[in-house]
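Obj.: predict assembly geometry.
Materials: sequence records (below).
Method: joint structure prediction, all chains together.
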Amino acid sequence: MNFNDAYEMTINGRGVAASATIDVVNPATGETFARAPDCSPQQLDEAVATARAAFKSWRNTPIEERQAMVRKAGEALAANAEALARLFTREQGRPVDAALTEVHGAAQWMQAVSQMSPPVHVSEDSDAQFIETRYVPLGVICAIAPWNFPVTLAMWKVAPALVAGNTMVLKPSPFTPLCTLKIGELFRDIFPPGVLNIISGGDQLGPQMTSHPGFAKISFTGSTATGKSVLASAAKDLKRVTLELGGNDAAIVMPDVDLDAVAQKIFFGAFYNTAQICVATKRLYVHEDVYDGLRDRLAAIAKAVKVGDGAEQGTVLGPIQNQRQYERVMNLLDDAKKSNLTLLQGADVPANGGYFIPVTIVDNPPEDSRVVQEEAFGPILPMLKFSDVDDVIDRANASDYGLAGAVWSKDTDKAVEIARRIETGTVWINQNLNLRPDTAFGGHKQSGFGVENGMEGLLEYMVPQAIYVARG
Ligand code: NAD
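Observations (raw structure tokens):
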């Protein structure tokens, strides 16, 4: 089955078009292939009003019923995974198999979150009094998602927010609105009208949403720069916020690693999804004893990996998702070239108007070069030499970001010791990119504010209420 080409928003349980549209470009060709509604301010007002109205009954719907609907929504995603994956590849660029993995992963995530319930704490149960603290929902959630994992990162918000008893207005990135709009269509018969509204639009819509007084909370995933504007906008009426932001993750490779066993894993930890992952390895610190060996292996993998249209058989890495990001990454690459850094480039890329950039490894650049200091969010990986563990930990921590990181070593006790000294929300040892619905995920420093996932993530969609009952 394929979806039809009509893309509508979901407001109050109905499909809604807009008087204007935004173009959606296939990043593998640079051509517009679809149009999505450009939500008007009146339609935003209507979405928020309908979500506020729906909140009154949704918050009192038994949690078991809310969980059952979220579970059903996960099943609807899984049942439509192939069609969603094909559309995903056209709008996002990632190869179809990997797109399918994302859709199935999001479906499983919803199943897992649908089994979570907030705790109730009893702090006193005596003849004198009974004191209980329970968690209650906040109201209408403003959910804003980015383009790199458009389905997963949207469902990370939908599932816990709705289980917790909130209603929502969700906005996908203007670069990848289509799968989310179709998901809205798939969920229309599952949730009561107004519980989950999905709107799309251009660059003006995000700020209109975050400054809208009808929201109780903003859950935002995107860049650190935008996150700061979101936080400022939320201050006006003290909206709650969760911000999942950028990272410049360091991986530390110790001298005892088995290079043949780890090279592939390290490569894809950096370049999967064409390196457009918040938690990708973005600075690779390698002990001098194994530096050359790892560099040569990574360069060989880069040469062998096919970069191209995700719809073509055999493509491993797709294009950069959009022109704006392509220009940013090209600017970083030009800067590396102008600075005479040594670049090891992988297989040739198509020259067809698509946003393709060859896999690029930068061989031991200075620590203060832009390619080390900035989040590339594209396929340029700086590899840096180290000899002293204390020094490399300092270098890894010398960043305003603090999202994730990795340590590679056969000595897992030593690796855990290093991990505990890394100032990030997640650290992997001999693995990477592994996240779970039952485990809190969030950034330290300027990589975030609050967390998603785990019980901590669920409770960010709720607020405690203490009830004191006098007895006797
Ligand atoms: P972005 O900040 O440009 O956009 C994210 C979303 O915010 C989009 O939907 C956009 O339309 C909207 N937006 C833009 N300006 C806004 C404003 N002023 N107010 C409100 N909303 C606004 O980010 P992006 O380029 O789509 O995503 C890439 C960035 O996201 C990278 O920095 C990456 O590391 C980060 N990211 C973080 C996580 C995480 O979980 N920590 C996950 C994925 C991506």
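Conclusions so far: The chain has a mean pLDDT of 98.
To do: check interface contacts against the pulldown list.
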